[in-house]
Design a protein that fits this description.
It contains 21 helices and 28 strands. The chain is α/β, with parallel strands linked by helices. One of its GO terms (molecular function) is beta-glucosidase activity.
């Protein structure tokens, strides 16, 4: 038996044995990728006669059986009919569920972040892991850990928001859950997009990142570092963008010096789809794809997705001419093979349909799906105790573009969004430029055109997800004695207001109005937000504000429900309506969960993972602004002081980070620290009590912030230290205990070294970054330099 086939030998020995046996062409095949899109499963020998290292999963079919058949046939061909029998690593997206037919679809990542609940993220990813494992997909191109502070950027919906500590905690939970306790039964997580991808010029996807060296490391690299240190992250995907004049996909500084050198990453780096092509066009830092491939692999890229363009057999000429070292190619191959051996792919690369079906359509998964949705709903405003609604309502009007639209439940990078994109491309008559290469050209008849989704898309999604309900349908089931009336009134976007009068008439005759507003998340010309769907405007799309004004003029009891990946940035709605709920994209069971929250079976408990701007002129706006910047500095020392910030408006945001109301009330008391004077290597315990003093059972998200009172570098006004979700029955109180590593207070000094600095740190506990209830001060006794890889990333908390 060849050594590489012996599962009892160490991974390193198996890798080196296999590497020594491989031809140049076989090595290149291991660092490239295959994606096929066809009605039938292809004859793989026609595509990959020497094998392939990586495969973009076939995911769209009427049932899961053809998907399993594809993976099974692929691996059997590779194992039994190629010279060395190396199985492929098959990948798919998974941020809100494994992206294939019949898999569960959970709320979008921005909704997950709104729960501030890492436990449910871990439970969700355990389900995703099992479904991917048994379908034969062993790499997830998730999570997205980009820090986003510009809602013009359409990919905000895929992120965990603006804060590095919250994103770190969510990323760590996701990676641990999907990779599992034993990697041989796990799925590789791929954190993306390294790094700074969410901060682009003009809010345009894939543009230049305007990020300082300090912010890049302290903020944007932090979730990656946390996932590496805490969760053993195995794979990273590069950013599409350029930083300081270098495209990240071709930047040795980013992919090797920082990621591997400073951060200690040991896994492999994959290119985002077509990002290597961008070295040629638009970046124009390489004359051709051969040069692009050389630059990328020398920079530290290990695998090219989605097909061989820069990483090709032509690299042999560069080896022979001395332009490229064979050692560099071997290093990339070695990293790929290492993960395959660690996953146990050489022992069992095959899907298992029988076991897969045991993990599809589980009641426990459906219950978790609904739980995450319910925890994500964020009550922004509730004046005059408008909510919860009474189940004795006789007539309720459900109006607006999302009232009876199943597509509104799902965000970008979900399976329903893939169906939408696929069908919309077909209707547009778009063909594949290359076999297996999906490019969606946004072809508008006029600037700003956004077309409505075809009714056949909604019919297809409803057929695929028979247990999902539109809000209107869910209400009819939930309130069988009530009269539920519906009128769309207005499209999600565009100028068509032909149905407005009908909707107003329907609403006028109801006891309560549920007004649904917001954008549509996805790809292409039928979406208002999504990948490559960026906007100069963050307000309600189309004529929705006009519709909202007309509804308000009815002076009826109205609840506003905002569906979107962007938060609600509309001052009229925020200031005029009594009850406003951020619904996000709540997933398969979102409507059922929403009914229970609206009618008081469960109190809303979501909190905003972003600061919400009043308008696009305030951008960027976020709570962690450095001292002297933005709304936190308005009116401070200067020759001319303006406490409003702007001459024509306030600099204060519409809603603050961490904001989220409940049907009940919570009080905070008795904050204590276990020590007042602390050393750089200490851990501080912070305790306080939270009590439910209202009339409903409910959950509170207790948030702990810190502020460096005086520092040698300009620091944020405050930073999130940690958070914990606490369920309290009416009248109940519990103690919260946070444990903070003092190293979490570290920052990069003027020499870019990680430093815990002597001085006072203020600790602040509350319900949002602005709603601070308790505070105390601790003093760090001395300066010390630390290892940034092992610093504190977020405070751990327990409830007792």
């Amino acid at each position: 038996m060849e050594k590489y086939r012996n599962k009892d030998l160490p991974v390193e020995e198996r890798v080196e044995d296999l590497l020594d046996r491989m031809t140049f062409e076989e090595k290149i095949d291991q660092i490239t990728c295959l994606v096929t899109i066809a009605d039938d499963i292809p004859e793989f020998e026609n595509y990959i006669p020497n094998g392939i290292g990586n495969v973009g999963a076939f995911t769209v079919a009427d049932t899961v059986e053809p998907i399993v058949e594809y993976a099974d046939k692929l691996q059997k061909y590779l194992v039994n009919h190629t010279r060395l029998g190396i199985p492929a690593l098959i990948h798919c997206e998974a941020s809100a569920g494994a992206q294939f037919t019949e898999a569960d679809v959970f709320p979008s990542a921005i909704a997950q972040a709104s729960t501030f609940d890492t436990e449910v993220v871990g439970e969700m990813t355990d389900i995703i892991r099992k479904q991917m494992y048994y379908v034969g997909f062993r790499q997830a191109l998730s999570p997205v850990v980009d820090i986003t502070r510009d809602p013009r950027w359409g990919r905000i919906t895929e992120t965990y928001g603006e804060d590095a500590a919250l994103t770190s905690a969510m990323a760590s939970a996701f990676v641990k859950g999907i990779q599992g306790d034993e990697l041989k039964e796990g799925v590789l997580a791929t954190a993306k997009h390294f790094a700074g991808h969410g901060i682009t010029e003009g809010g345009l996807n894939m543009g230049r990142n305007i990020v300082s060296e300090r912010d890049m490391r302290e903020i944007h690299c932090k979730p990656f570092q946390c996932a590496i240190t805490e969760a053993g992250l195995k794979s990273v995907m590069n950013s599409y963008c350029s930083v300081n004049g270098e495209p990240v996909v071709g930047s040795k500084k980013m992919l090797t010096d920082i990621l591997r050198g400073e951060m200690g990453f040991q896994g492999f780096v994959v290119s985002d789809y077509l990002s290597l092509d961008r070295l040629v066009d638009p970046f124009a830092v390489a004359e051709n794809f051969e040069e692009a491939g050389i630059r990328a692999i020398q920079a530290g890229l290990d695998v090219e997705y989605p097909r061989s363009k820069g990483f090709s057999y032509k690299m042999k000429e560069s080896i022979e001419s001395g332009r490229l070292s064979m050692d560099i190619i071997d290093q990339a191959v070695r990293r790929v093979l290492t993960q395959k051996f660690e996953l146990g792919l050489f022992e069992n690369p095959y899907p298992d349909l029988e076991k897969l079906k045991k993990y599809l359509h589980l009641k426990s998964a459906d219950e978790l799906n609904e739980k995450i949705a319910a925890e994500s709903f964020t009550l922004l405003k509730n004046e005059n105790k408008t909510l919860p609604l009474s189940k004795k309502i006789k007539k309720i009007a459900v109006i607006g573009p999302h009232a009876d639209n199943i597509r509104s439940l799902f965000g970008t990078f979900s399976y329903p969004a893939v169906l939408d994109m696929t069908m919309s491309r077909e209707e547009d008559g778009q063909e594949f430029e290359e076999p297996g290469l999906i490019i969606y050209d946004v072809e508008q008849k006029y600037k700003g055109e956004i077309r409505e989704v075809s009714p056949r898309v909604n019919r297809k999604i409803q057929k695929e997800f028979p247990n999902s309900r539109t809000l209107c349908a869910a209400l009819k089931e939930y309130l069988p004695e009530a009269e539920v009336v519906y009128a769309q009134g207005i499209n999600c976007s565009g100028d068509n207001t032909g149905g407005m009068e009908e909707a107003l008439q329907v609403a006028a005759g109801a006891d309560v109005i549920l007004l649904t507003i917001g954008g549509k998340n996805g790809w292409g010309v039928t979406s208002t937000v999504g990948e490559g769907i960026d906007s100069t405007d963050i307000d309600l799309p189309g004529r929705q504000e006009e519709f909202a004004r007309r509804v308000y003029d009815l002076h009826k009891k109205t609840v506003v429900l905002h569906y979107d990946g962007r938060p609600l940035s509309n001052e009229f709605v925020a200031s005029h309506f009594d009850a406003i709920m951020e619904v996000w994209q709540p997933g398969e069971y979102g409507s059922q969960a929403l009914c229970k929250v609206l009618f008081g079976e469960q109190s809303p408990s979501g909190h905003l993972p972003v600061t919400v701007a009043r308008n696009v002129g305030q951008l960027p706006v976020y709570y962690g602004l450095p001292r002297g910047s933005g709304y936190v500095s308005a009116g401070h020392t200067g020759m001319i002081r303006n406490k409003n910030g702007y001459i024509n408006d306030t600099a204060e945001p519409l809603y603050y980070f961490g904001h989220g109301l409940s049907y009940t009330e919570f009080t905070y008391s008795d904050l204590q620290t276990d020590k007042k004077n602390i050393n750089p290597d200490d851990t501080v315990k912070v305790t306080f009590t939270v009590k439910n003093t209202g009339e409903y059972d409910g959950a509170e998200v207790a948030q702990l912030y810190f502020s460096d009172k005086v520092a040698s570098m300009v620091r944020p006004t405050k930073e999130l230290a940690g958070f914990v979700r606490i369920f309290l029955k009416k009248g109940e109180k519990k103690k919260v205990v946070f444990e903070i590593k003092v190293s979490q207070f570290a920052f990069l000094d003027e020499e870019m070294k990680w430093k815990v600095e002597k001085g006072e740190i203020e600790l602040l506990a509350g319900s949002s970054c602005e709603d601070i209830r308790l505070s105390d001060i601790v003093s760090i006794s001395e300066d010390d330099y630390i290892d940034g890889k092992t610093r504190g990333f977020y405070a751990k908390a327990v409830v007792c």
